[in-house]
Amino acid sequence: IAPEESSELMKGRWAMVNLWRNISEHPVQDMPLAMCDSSTISNDDLITFEVRYTDRTGENYFAKHSDAHRWNYFPQATRDEAILLKVWDSHGAAFSGQTADPSPAHAVPATFSLHSAFVDPTAAADCPKRESIEVRTVVFY
Hints:
By secondary structure, the chain is mainly beta.
């Protein structure tokens, strides 16, 4: 995408969507991927931190623990399955008013997806280590 075209595209709704996939011949047992239901996350649960690059400063989030969070995962994910994670949406409800179209009527419920690997206590101690890949894409609406 040419720089002048990307500037125009960024004025509308855009999202970053990651594709996560097991790349091993074995189902994932060690450190599976979990996702938090966005409807259970409050902005008060988030800790913002800066990510500094040579040409810009961005931000990312840590999440505080909350008993309200509902986590889900796909046990024994195989290499034939893929998970799509919306990791940013410019029209996310958490950031209404910070986009080209600030109208809450145009907001979508989830701005991003909290996700993490976790220690599965049901996994055998000698299970194969997780092998996975995550690819980020940018979607323009």
